[in-house]
Structure prediction request, 172 residues.
Amino acid sequence: MKSKMWPKRTHRLIGMTAALLACAVLPLLAAWKVGEKLPALTGYGLAGRVPATADRVVLLDFWASWCGPCKRSFPELDQLNQSYRSRGLVVCAVSVDDKADDMDAFLKDHPVSFSVVRDAEQKLVAAAGVESMPTSFLVDRHGVIRFSHVGFRGAETVEQLKREIEKLLAEK
Prediction:
């Protein structure tokens, strides 16, 4: 009797192992890495206007309305946008909120001068491998991801972003 059940058990065990490996490994393979090209943002079904990024330094920030550090980072990102946009910086914030109303309420309380889009289908955030909010990527004028940041640590993060933005804007 055991010999007849062994193939079913083996099959089930192999299936479960494959599923666990896929859950653990695939997100690591999909995560964006420093040194890689940023994929075109238009192919992810984002709600809102995706800004033009060609030949620009891009600060792409993933955030959510429920994220405390995101609330503190938004005024700082807005200041960076206002300070550097004339030199070629584009800031684009990608909301991962499920509901547009949550994002809209946040933006009403935290108005900004940069582009905000919503990743309603969670495709872009999954492709980027983002696991915590906020997470941002700094991209050079050639579309290459040069820096990434997880979290927001106030003045420390702002000063680091300023140094990195200055470096990228100085490159041709």
